[in-house]
Each structure stands twice: as structure tokens, then as C-alpha cells.
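Checklist before submission:
- one chain only
- standard amino acids only
- sequence pasted in full

Submission:
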Amino acid sequence: MNKLVLLDRDGVINKEIGDYVTNVSDFELLPHALYNTKKLKDAGFGIVVVTNQGGIAKGKYSHTELDAIHNKMITAFEQVGVQLDEVYYCPHHPEKTHCLCRKPDSIMLEKALARFGVSAANTFLIGDADRDIEAATKIGIKAFKITTNENWEKYVDEILAAR
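Returned file contents:
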């Protein structure tokens, strides 16, 4: 693999419902996310999810509950023939503790680049928050900001045209 797309989770892959998706029954995949991700995967891109999950630090849900949510997400992608390459999450929240992994810091993104040996120049990010875009641009990753829950197919087409 020599190219990556990093995806934020809430509002990009699944429906943003407010403060936190705290359990599996609240997790609703956005149908276009499956289709768009499949287009990228079929074109040879690695797919990595990078998501802030500060609800863990706030006691809203546990690592175990988050694992169940991510297993549901992974299974849904597998059902359309997409293997996610990795899911990175930050369990911290600035109200509770300081860390370097929470976006807009870029540690999760840097981990993905290092793990898969892909340069920032061959990596793209799609997110729905300024902190997503800031994390990407500070390390030279081209980022696309969508409106929460928006279909991001036009950015997939732009990514595919740029390769």
C-alpha cells in the first residue's frame, strides 16, 4: 500500500447524533460511507479511521462498549467487501486529562503514516470538524472538510483524480 485515506468517524462514517454514540444501538452507518469507502479501497487506498472518543474519559461509555461499536462498523464494511486497515481512537478529553493523541494533535495520523509506510503527500483525510482538518494540515496531509453527515462522494472523486 502506498496511499491512504484517513476518515473521521462520527459525522463521516456514521450519523452524528449529538454528544456521543454510547452504544451499538445508537450507531447508524451513513449509507454513502460504505459506497465511498469501497470506491477508495477498490482504487488501492488503505483506509484508516481516526476518531476522538472523549466520552470514555467522561465516563459516558467504556472501552468495551466502544469495541462493540467498532466491531459493528468493521462488520458492516466487510459485508460490502471493504477491509478497514486500522481504527485509531483517542479516549481522552481535555476536561479530564491532557494528551497528544486527541485531534487537533496529529499523533493518530502520524501513527497511521508510520504503520503503513505512507508519506503525507500520498495521504488524504476526510473530516467534519476543524480539529480534523487542523490535525491533517499540520503534518502536510491534504484534508477535506464536509458538513456533518454529508455525502462526501465529490471528495472521493477528487482524491481519485489526484492519484
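Reviewer check: The domain at 4-162 is CATH 3.40.50.1000 (Rossmann fold).
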